[in-house]
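Can't paste images in this forum, so I'm doing it all in text. The chain is below; anyone willing to post the predicted structure tokens underneath?
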Amino acid sequence: MEQTISAQILTSFPPVDEAAVDALLRAEIAKDDTKFIVLDDDPTGVQTVHDISVYTDWSVESIKSGLTEPQKVFYILTNSRGLTAEQTTAVHKEIAANIVAAARETGKKYLVMSRSDSTLRGHFPLETELLRQSLTESGLHVDGEILCPFFKEGGRFTIGNTHYVKYGDELVPAAQTEFAKDKTFGYSHSDLPAYIEEKTAGAYPAGSVTCISLEELRGQDYDAITAKLTAVTDFRKVCVNAVDYCDVKVFAVALYRAMAQGKTFLFRTAAGLVKVVGGITDIPLLRRQDMVQVDTHTGGVVVVGSHTQKTTAQLEALLKLPCVVPIQFDSDLVLQGDEVFYAEVDRCVALEEEVIRSGRVAVCFTSRKLLTVENDTPESALIRSVKISDGVQSLVGRLKVTPAFIIAKGGITSSTVGTEALGVKRANVLGQICPGIPVWQTDDTSKFPKIPYVIFPGNVGDADTLRQAVEILTQT
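Text version of the structure:
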């Protein structure tokens, strides 16, 4: 059985001259004209970037707009973690075809990054396999797929090819966490080569995976890492170990050098690698004055859909603030039909509006006990969760009063609130309010233009982080 280890190991690796690595990386980026198109399976993937565009549709025109922006990276929000396998198949085929068309019209060189969960949930290997097939048919040969689930801000680290989630002073193998028990996307291996073999049903055996070790990365053995990457063929997988950004930066230098030699990759990655290959700098955490630019004279709204233990602990801490008013949304009424379910939505919206007009913060949350149904199937569970998600987004979509800010807790929740309730077509990522917690500035055509929209992942932060975010946004 995979063992929990002390988080002290994170500081036991030899340091590197990060300024020197940064200089090498900047030089490689400057020589490269590739645009990285990031397909994000929920809106939390912008949790490491700033001043980057997020498009909520994948039309040829939107992709052309992204390709012609000056930034190295742009995002397309697919929300595919909330889709069935059949739905995400259709979506990814359409996206790939539109990328090919947009690239031909603009003449831009590109690579595609599939940004997904740092705790290894999502439609893998389906989505990247679909992209490979479609891009290959268009004439783009893809040599391999790079997996890098490192996400420092959320406490996700890969050591000795095993992926860990940080809980307090311990690193717990990902397969032993609540995330691995996900009804739709569960798994049993934390060792990434074994995870790959498990998820691909043996099509890519663990022994075929190329692993980039921390020893190579901390030793800055660029030639050896580049050689490993140039040897990858037949869409075989590459596993990247990392415990800090310096590891990802060393890898990115070698990656760019392999790309310069003609190698082409797809990526299944968490947010950390996107920031590094995009050359995106660090900025301070956002303050209220950086976010609240429209004086609404109203309070804010927090919508909580995630059921993780972390989210529930964060909600309990938030409800201790004197400025907040709790509103429980009985999401279990989804079992009683649409009329009863949406009557409950309207009841909550009326309470929210009263709170928001009073200048306080309405905190609307789903039932904390995860709904279980006898003889349930993964597909029906996902479909039901999407219906509940629609009810949750309606808690914002049906508002008639403009809040000073909106916080959505949970990946699917934040996606449906952003795209359906707010109607955002293109958002600008302002930065992060707390580590790993991004803030969109809504566009002029959205339901509430220029309002800060905080996308709070269900599996990020400490017990007090949600409360801290509200405190920052309510400071006067």
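The chain has two domains: 5-277, 288-474. DSSP finds 15 helices and 19 strands in the chain.
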